[in-house]
Design brief:
heterodimer, A: mainly alpha, B: alpha+beta, PH-domain like, 5-stranded mixed beta sheet, 21 helices, disordered C terminus, Myotubularin-like_Pase_dom (chain A), Myotubularin (chain A), Prot-tyrosine_phosphatase-like (chain A)
Chain lengths: ~325, ~650
């Protein structure tokens, strides 16, 4: 599984021998690979006008391109905001709840993200093919897809430790611009141009996986909520800045504490574990049918829904498992 | 058997409803009680059995090159798509099924031929498992305020009521009879639930025949008697579960509702639950959404909202909550009715009882609740669920809605119920299956006339025997959630009502969480128990050895590997680890795993020895990208079935279809 940003083909259909060689070297003779472009075919084409573009078939003959349009940026942020608004509306009647929920389009984004990640996973696992994922910048939907695909495919990513490693690799070091994306969240009137809840979308997808495979993730909802909180506002330096370069310049490692260090302390760690976890060596393939994708109430209705009885249930589960 | 034109058809294809490319070929059999499809193939001769009683509709579709399609929709939401090679065979099967699915005599129903190999004594014991007299005694009646009345002993007063009803002490036979003449279908006010903590009660009846101005002294006295039976309150609520407009319209037909001016000390309340026709249509619309091929999120959410189904569920729940509150918090008695007092009234009374009394949240208590408020009080099972061929306008998912209310509550209060989702699903299944005699006919009177108890078996006994499968591992009788009244959040609460895919997409295993927390925890519980028992044995042994102080040290210590049920869960894992079809939204491409009969359900529901339980046959399919690239998966052996490294030793396969 590889990731990158878009090739700078431009309107004149530039070529780059080194890039072609690089991609060529990944595949054996006669092998084929897949490029999953997280933009629609049209958007990818239009990107050429701005200097970007796609890999032309003629220059990358062994690679087949698949387009899966995933929303990002402004659209995704608006979706997030609308969802939060719907959830907060006290007088909304049952007559209108579902259509308003749909109107936010958030669940459609979850469905699309999971589907694309599953596609990537399928190419790797069922087709035994190499897969290259990119969108435009390679910092948003790209990471969403690669991180989710690894969760689906690799049981070691589903352990608490493995998951932290996944986040570190595929989000933090890969350069997802947390500072720009997670500046203000949904309720602020100020709408940053670069603000977009990609990381939240990722966490939502992870939650969907945990709901469909309740025994297969070593961590629970509490970890996901903690990550959401810390991405936006944190006592730790883990999610600061936009990339490794900035973190180095700001001397983040020298001046702040690591979230992972805190999480892994023996008195904290148990709170984040899933008592139902049981190592599952196989690939987990989620269903992306609408019935299977649910609103993540633990996050979006966190302060609204009555959680007492659900909490009691978890205490009971813990008690049973500890025997 | 005379209705079966074609008892056997070969080379029939059973399509996977969701993936048109996956089909299995087999033989179709028609028997007097079932339709059976048996897959060809040496290893797994998987069988799909469908009871005729379950068949809701049969659709013969236009013949194509591959054959003549036949779509069977079942009342338990199973949908079976067959393709029969010859059109005339298909037609014969169609005609036969039409007749078989619409019995005209009770004797045609499966319960009269079903034989679980129990003797007469066991059959009788089975019917005695649920005893309503015991139940009323448990509630605390008869007592100073309530008495049992046999005024209806020959069904002379009301033929849809039971022979024994509980009425207020001050309600004489004269009052009861008088009141019954003023109530639709003679269904006079009678006790449904008595709260011994504060003497408040829930009574039920049908609408009064008040028209615009009619009065009846005895009926007014009846309500007075109910009020007097609760010294803690000086008024009662009268709850009409219909929308106000409908109730008012009934007045023109000489029926209607209680006028607060005429009935002293009542507070009248409309709750507004729609009628059986609206509910029938609502379910229909929701099932259409379920049948959409690869719907988008919008298709699904809009479709679900337009059906109005969850809104209706919430309305029933709200009514139950209102009544439970009146009884538990205000200590006020409630009289509930709708039009005829056998649909919405039953729903609302049983929901309220469930909220009020933790006994009804136990397995036994739940069976008792259904026996009381649905079976004994004359809910028209035959008309509503089509035991026999009848008026399609009488069909309505009334008890289905109640069962769903229970599920919604189970989701909100995971520790509060002794039973699990499977219990509810199996009960629903059997309401339609007519495999047992509990849910036949329209009234106790009809059931006695048919001698149901002597000629059929009780579902309750069957479920009770298998109760280990129906337990909720999170239930503890001494837990805060299991004590006292349940208080669902009233507002905001829209999000609390979820789509029950476990019921309405029951046979599409791929849609549900692929690992069962319930099963896992039950296994953990069992193992813990086993270990504890073993520990006891070993401790005893140790104590004995220490006592005897002999040098005999042959203590066998069993090595228990506490590595959690890996043996048990490889099968679950392989079920979980089968890919769906992940497709482009542009193309209408099913992205679900194949629907198959529910293996564990088959084993429990059909106690046939020859029924083969089988593993759901889930497989991966190639993805397809329209417009840009055709992603065809080719298998090395050209289209055969290959076990993937994902599948456990169970038979999950990756099917690679040549482009």
């Amino acid at each position: 599984l590889l990731r990158s940003s878009q090739p700078l083909t431009g309107p004149n259909r530039r070529r780059c021998r080194e890039d072609e060689k690089l991609l060529g070297s990944i595949l054996d003779e006669g092998e084929r690979g897949f490029i999953i472009d997280t933009r629609s075919a049209q958007a990818a084409k239009q990107a050429r006008m701005g200097g970007g573009g796609t890999e032309p078939k003629s220059s990358y003959p062994q690679w087949r391109r698949l387009h899966r349009a995933l929303d990002r940026g402004r659209q995704l942020q608006e979706s997030f905001v609308r969802l939060v608004e719907v959830c907060a509306e006290p007088t909304l009647s049952m007559d209108r709840w579902l259509s308003r929920l749909d109107g936010s389009r958030w669940l459609s984004h979850v469905k699309a993200a999971l589907s694309t990640a599953c596609l990537a996973a399928q190419c790797l696992d069922r087709e035994d093919s190499n897969v290259l994922v990119h969108g435009a910048e390679g910092t948003d939907t790209t990471l969403l897809v690669t991180a989710l695909a690894q969760l689906i495919l690799d049981p070691s990513c589903r352990t608490l430790e493995g998951f932290q490693g996944l986040l570190e690799r595929e989000w933090i070091q890969a350069g997802h611009p947390f500072q720009l994306r997670c500046a203000r969240s949904a309720s602020s009137h100020a709408r940053g141009k670069q603000e977009a809840p990609l990381f939240l979308l990722f966490l939502d997808c992870v939650w969907q996986l945990s709901r469909q495979f309740p025994l297969s993730l070593e961590f629970g909802e509490r970890l996901l909520l903690t990550l959401f909180d810390n991405a936006y506002a944190s006592s730790y330096g883990t999610f600061l800045c936009n990339n490794e370069k900035e973190r180095s310049l700001c001397k983040v490692k020298e001046s702040t504490h690591s979230l992972w260090a805190w999480l892994n302390q023996p008195q904290e760690k148990p709170k984040f574990l899933n008592p139902l976890y049981s190592h599952n060596p196989l690939v987990i393939w989620p269903s992306v049918e609408p019935q299977s994708i649910q609103l993540w109430q633990g996050l979006f209705l966190r302060w609204i829904r009555p959680s007492q009885h659900l909490d009691e249930a978890w205490v009971e589960i813990q008690r049973l498992v500890e025997g | 058997m005379e209705h079966i034109r074609m008892p056997k058809v070969e080379n029939v294809r059973l399509l996977d409803r969701l993936s048109s490319r996956r089909a299995v070929v087999g033989t179709l059999y028609l028997t007097a009680t079932h339709v059976i499809f048996v897959e060809n193939g040496s290893e797994t001769r998987k069988e799909t059995w469908v009871l005729h009683s379950q068949i809701s509709s049969i659709e013969k579709q236009a013949t194509t090159a591959t054959g003549c399609p036949l779509l069977i929709r079942c009342k338990n939401f199973q949908v079976i798509q067959l393709v029969i090679p010859q059109e005339r065979d298909c037609h014969d099967v169609y005609i036969s099924l039409i007749r078989l699915a619409r019995p005209v005599k009770y004797e045609e129903l499966y319960c009269f031929s079903f034989n679980p190999k129990l003797d007469k004594e066991e059959r009788e014991q089975g019917w005695k498992l649920v005893d309503l007299n015991e139940e009323y005694n448990r509630m605390g009646v008869p007592n100073n305020y309530w008495q049992i009345s046999d005024v209806n002993r020959d069904y002379g007063v009301c033929d849809s009521y039971p022979t024994e009803v509980y009425v207020p002490k001050s309600a004489t036979a004269h009052i009861i009879v008088g009141s019954s003449k003023f109530r639709s279908r003679r269904r006079f006010p009678a006790l449904s639930y008595y709260c011994k903590g504060n003497n408040a009660s829930i009574c039920r009846s049908s609408q009064p025949l008040s028209g615009f101005s009619a009065r009846c002294l005895e009926d007014e006295q009846m309500l007075q008697a109910i009020r007097k039976a609760n010294p803690g309150s000086d008024f009662i609520y009268v709850v009409d579960t219909r929308p106000k407009l409908n109730a008012m319209a009934n007045r023109a037909a000489g029926k209607g509702y209680e006028n607060e001016d005429n009935y002293s000390n009542i507070k009248f309340q409309f709750i507004g639950i729609e009628n059986i026709h609206v509910m029938r249509n609502s379910l229909q619309k929701m099932l259409e959404v379920c049948e959409l091929k690869s719907p988008s999120m919008s298709d699904f959410l809009w479709g679900l909202e337009n059906s109005g189904w969850l809104k209706h569920i919430k309305a029933i729940m709200d009514a139950g909550i209102f009544i439970a509150k009146a009884v538990a918090e205000e200590g006020v008695s409630v009289l509930v009715h709708c039009s005829d007092g056998w649909d919405r009234t039953a729903q609302v009374c049983s929901v309220a009882s469930l909220l009020l009394d933790p006994y009804y949240r136990t397995m036994k208590g739940f069976m008792v609740l259904i026996e009381k408020d649905w079976i004994s009080f004359g809910h028209k099972f035959n008309h509503r669920y089509g035991n026999l061929d009848g008026d399609p306008k009488e069909i309505s998912p009334v008890i289905d809605q109640f069962i769903e209310c229970v599920w919604q509550l189970m989701e909100q209060f995971p520790c509060a119920f002794e039973f699990n989702e499977r219990f509810l699903i199996h009960i629903q299944h059997h309401i339609y299956s007519c495999q047992f005699g509990n849910f036949l006919c329209n009234s106790q009177k009809e059931r006695r006339e048919l001698k149901i108890k002597e000629r059929t078996y009780s579902l309750w006994a069957h479920l009770w025997k298998n109760r280990a499968d129906y337990l909720n591992p999170l239930y503890r009788s001494d837990h805060s959630q299991t004590q006292g009244t349940l208080h669902p959040q009233i507002t905001p609460c829209n999000f609390l009502y979820k789509f029950w895919s476990g019921m309405y997409n029951r046979f599409e295993k791929g849609l549900h969480p692929r690992q069962s927390v319930t099963d896992y925890l039950m296994a953990v519980k069992e193992e813990t128990q086993q270990l504890e028992e073993e520990l006891e044995v070993l401790q005893e042994r140790l104590a004995n050895l220490q006592k005897s102080q002999s040098g005999d040290n042959k203590v066998k210590s069993k090595q228990q590997d506490r590595s959690k049920q890996t043996g048990l869960y490889t099968s679950n894992n392989s079920l979980a680890n089968t890919p769906q079809e992940y497709s482009n939204d542009l193309k209408s491409f099913p992205s679900r795993s194949p629907s198959q009969g529910d293996e564990e359900d088959s084993a429990l529901i059909l106690t046939q020895d020859n029924l083969k339980s089988s593993d759901p046959d889930l497989s991966a399919n190639s993805d397809q990208e329209s417009g840009v690239e055709d992603l065809s998966c080719r298998s090395p052996s050209g289209g055969g079935c290959l076990p993937s490294e994902d599948s456990g030793k169970d038979s999950d396969e990756a099917v690679f279809l040549a482009g």
